[in-house]
Amino acid sequence: MAETTVAGVWTDSELESLTDAYLVMLHSEIEKEPFNKRQHNIALQEKINRTHASIEFKFCNLSAVLLDLERTYINGYKPRDHYQQALKDLILRRLDEFPKASTEQMNKRTMPVEDPNSKIIDSQTGASSSKSVNEGFLHSKIASDSITLDVKQDKFSKPNDIWDALTALWERSTGGSGVADRPEDSHTSRMPIAPRPAGVEEASVWFGQNLKDATIPRFLFLVGGPGAGKSHTASYLVKDLEKISPGDDGLAHRKYTYKVGNHRLDLINDATIPSDGRNLGPLVQDLQESIADENHVIACVNRGVLIEETNHFAGKDLAELTPGEVITKWLASNEAGFLPDQEWKIYSDLNLDYIQSGFLSHGSRKIAEIVAVFVDVCSLFETKPVPQLDHNNESAMTSYQSTYEIADFFARSDIPIEDYPAGVLFSKIVKQLSTLDFCDVDERFNPIAANIAALGTLPTQRSLLSIVRASEIVSGQRFTYREVWGVIARIIVGGLTETIESSNLKEHVYQMKSDNRTEIDHFKHMRKLAAIRYNQSLFGIGDITSSAKDDSKRNPVTRLTSRVDPMRDAVAGKRSSGKNKGWATPVTEAFSGPAVAGSPLKTLEEILGPEDLFSEIVQPFDRELDHAFATVMSVDTLPESQRFEFIHWYGAYLGRLYAVTHGIPAFEREVALWIEAWYSKPNLPMELESGLQTLLRPKRNPRKEKSASMIPLFDSRTNPIVGNQIDPKLALQTVEPDMRTRVDGEELFLILSEKTEIIALMPLDFAFVREATSCSQDYAGMTELTETTSPRLERFRASLLVPKFLKHENYRIVDGLDDRFITLNED
User: Fold this and answer.
1) Residues 812/821, Cβ–Cβ less than 8 Å
2) Are 428 and 242 in contact (CB under 8 A)?
3) Are 42 and 443 in contact (CB under 8 A)?
C-alpha cells in the first residue's frame, strides 16, 4: 500500500525510496543494461503516492545534487536546480554509493547557465529577449544614455499552483485583439517567455545604443503580420522615455511621440489605424513628417500596409519619388530602383531575407540610418539566425551576418531544442508545469496530467515541434507566437480554452472521474476525455460529435495542424526499417485477432520493445482508456456497427499517439523532399525533377520513350492531348524546359526556361511537390491537391502559346494515335 503523503515538501521516507530507485537505474546505465524509466516511475508511484510528473522532476533534482557533488547522474534525467536541502543531506549520507562524475558531465558545470529572469516578457505573444550562449555579444542594459532593454524592470510572477498556471493558458490561447498593444500597457506574465523573432533583439540594441548622441536620425522598421511581438518590442524601446503626445486617453493610437535628449522619436505603433482622416499613403506622410523634423522613427508595419501604400505611387517616375515613398518601396520590394539623377536614394549595406539595413540619402548627404526586420520570414521552429549590428558613423551593419537555413527534416532530432525559438518556450512551459501537482486528482482520468508528464521527455518535445513545423510547410503559413501559444494550449488542455471558462477548470478536472455504470458508457466517457490528449487535440480530433468534427476547420491552429494528421497518410512499414519507410504496421498488428481480444496497447508495446520511446510516453490515462476498450470489446450485446466504430476510433488514437511520439506527420516523405529542394537550390532533387517534368508535360503515350507532349492550340483549356484523338486537332509539340529554383526567405520558386528564355516562374510549394511525387513512370498522378495545382499548370502551358514560343517546326496535326508535321505558307 502506498505511503500517505501530502503535496509539497517530500518526506525523508519518500526521498529514500526515490534514491533507491534512482540508484538501480544509474547502475543499469553505467553497465549499459537496458531499463525502463516509466516502469520504475510506476513502481515508485505505487509506493509513495506521488504523481508521474512529480517523480520525474524529483529525479532531475537528484541529478542536480549529484552534479554539484561531482558524482555521476543519469543522462536521461537532466539536472534541475532549486532542490530541497533534505535531498542533498540524504545524498551526502549515501555518497559512497554514487560513482564520481565523468569528465563530460563535470564540464557541464562550467557552461554558462541561462538566467530565467533575464528576459523580456510579452503578455500578448510570449515573445522575449534572451541572453543566450549564442547571443553573448548582447547586453541586457546598454549605456545609461541609451534606450535600453532593461530586463530588471520586467514583471514575471510564478504561478501559485497548477490551476493558476493552467489558467494563464487561457490568456494566451485567445489569439489577442486585432489592434496592437499600447506602449504603456503592462506586460506582466505568469508563464515563461521565449526569444524574439530573428533579428529583432539585435536591431533593438542597435537602435537604442547611444541614441541621444546619434548624429543622424535612426529608423527601425518591424515588418510582418500580427502576433509576432512588434508592438511589444516597440513598447520596451520607449518605456523609459518621456511621452509628448498623445495624451493618456486609454485608447490605442497610430502614432506616439517621445523626447530623446534634445531630439524626438516618433513611434508608429500600428500603421493599420487611420491617420487623421488622410486616405492616401498615411505611412508615407508619417515618414515625410519625421524626416522633415529630423526625428528618430520606430514603425510597426503589416505587409498589407506596404502593398496599399506602394499602389498609391506605382506609376510615378522613380526620379520624382519622395523620401517617404523611397523608404516604403524599399521595404516592400527590397529595391528602390535607383536612377543616376534620382534625388532620394537608399544605399543598402546588408540584405538578408529577414533583416536589411541601409542609409537614406539626399544627393550625397546621409539623412537617416535604417534597419528593417521582417519578423515573419524565419520559422520559430527552425534554428534562429543571429546577425550582429554595429553602430558607427560609416555603416549600420558590418561584422557578422547569419543566414537563415531550414534543417533536414530527418535530422531535426539531433538539433538542440533550445536552438528553436518556439522550442525554448515549449521546454520552459513544460518544465514549469512539471513542478506543480494536481494533488488528489486521479491520474487515470486526468488527460491534462498525462499530457504534461509525456511532454517531460525531450524527444517528445522535439517530435511535437517537428510535426508543427511540417504543418507550416504543408500549409505554406508560418506561425507567429500567437499561434505558438495556441499550439501549447492545445497540447496541454486540448480545446478546453474554447469550451469552458478558466475559472471552471478545477471543477471540470475533478469531475472527469468516471461514474458510469455500464462498460459502454465508461468507454464513451474515456473517449470524450481523450479529446484533450495532445495526440488528438493537436489535430482537432474530438469525440466524433458534429461540433468536434468542425473544430479542425474553425480553430486557427488546428486549421493548419489537421493537414498533417498522421492518420491521413498512415503508410505501412516499420520505423525500425529506416525513416521514410512507413510506420503504421506495428499499430495494425496490435489490433490483429478476433474482435480485438485483449489489450492493443500492451500488444503494441510488446511489438515495439522496451527500447522504443513509445513505452516512455504511455501514461496511466492511456492504460485506463485501453482497459475500457478491452472491457467494452468483451460485451456480447455490443452492436457490431458500434464495435467496429470503437475499433476504428481506438486504432486511430493509438496510431496518432505512436506517430506523434516519433515526430511523424502525414506526408512525411513530401515534406522532407520539399526541404531537400529548398536546401539544394538552384538544383532540384532528381526524384522531384522527374515528377515535375511529367506533371508539366505529360507524354501523349507514356509507354513510348520518345513520345512528346501536345498542347491543343484552339481549345478553351490547355489540357495536353493524351491517348487516342478522335477528331483531328492542331497542337503544339512542347520541348522539355530547363528547371532551376531560387529562394526568397522560406518561399521556393521554380524557374522554367527554354535555352536562355524564361518561360514561367511559379511557386514550388508543398502542393506541387505532392502532385509531382504522385507521378510515376511518365504517368501523371492525381491527389487531393490536384485542383490547387491545375490553375498554375494551365498558366504555364498557356505561356507556351505566346508568339515567341510558337515555332513552325513544333506544329502538329494530331489524329487518332498519330501526329503529322504541317507546313505553313508564309505567303
Assistant:
1) yes
2) no
3) no
Grid cell listed for 532: 484533450
CA–CA separation, 415 and 425 (whole Å): 16
HSE-CB for 28 with a 13 A CA cutoff: 13
Say how far apart CA 444 and CA 428 lie, in whole Å: 25
Phi, psi of 233 (to 5 degrees): -60, -45
Residues 6+ apart with CB under 8 A from 814: 700, 710, 712, 721, 725, 728, 729, 730, 731
d(CA 155, CA 190): 9
Q: Which residues contact 129 (CB under 8 A, 6 or more apart)?
A: 119, 120, 138, 140, 149, 151, 195, 196, 201, 204
Measured CA to CA, the distance from residue 113 to residue 208 in angstroms comes to 26
Question: 3-state class of 259 per DSSP?
Answer: strand
Report the Cα 141 to chain-centroid distance in Å: 30
**Closest to 654 (Cα-Cα) out of 587, 609, 592, 595:** 587
CA-based nearest residue to 733, from 805, 783, 827:
805
- For the stretch 571-597, pLDDT in tens is 999 987 667 678 999 999 999 865 456
Is residue 472 within 8 Å of 382, Cβ to Cβ? no
DSSP per-residue codes, 362-378: ETTEEEEEEEEEETTSS
Backbone phi, psi, residue 709, to 5°: -105, 130
At how many degrees (to 10) do helices 519-530 and 640-661 cross?
A: 30
Query: Which residue has 489605424 as its cell numbers?
Result: 273
Tell me phi and psi for residue 195, to 5 degrees. -65, 155
- 782, 793, 807: which is closest to 719 by C-alpha? 793
Sign of the CA dihedral running 416, 60, 490, 484: negative
CB-based contact 79:87 (threshold 8 Å): no
Contacts of 405 (CB under 8 A, 6+ apart): 382, 383, 385, 679
Q: How far is the C-alpha of 189 from the C-alpha of 184, rounded, in Å?
A: 15
Q: What is the pTM of this model?
A: 0.78
What pLDDT digit, counting tens, does each position of 768-797 carry?
A: 999 999 998 888 888 888 888 888 888 888
What is the chain's percent helix, strand, coil content, to nearest 5? Answer: 45, 15, 40
Q: How far apart are CA 214 and CA 216, in angstroms?
A: 6
Collect all residues with Cβ–Cβ distance below 8 Å to 414 and sequence separation of at least 6: none
CA torsion angle 629 631 637 641 (round to 10): 10
| pLDDT averaged over every residue in the chain | 83
Q: What are phi and psi for residue 600, nearest 5 degrees?
A: -60, -35
Q: Is the peptide bond before 682 cis (omega within 30 degrees of 0)?
A: yes
Exposure b/e, 205-224, CB count within 10 A at least 16 = b: bbbbbebeebeebbbbbbbb
For residue 583, give the DSSP letter: -
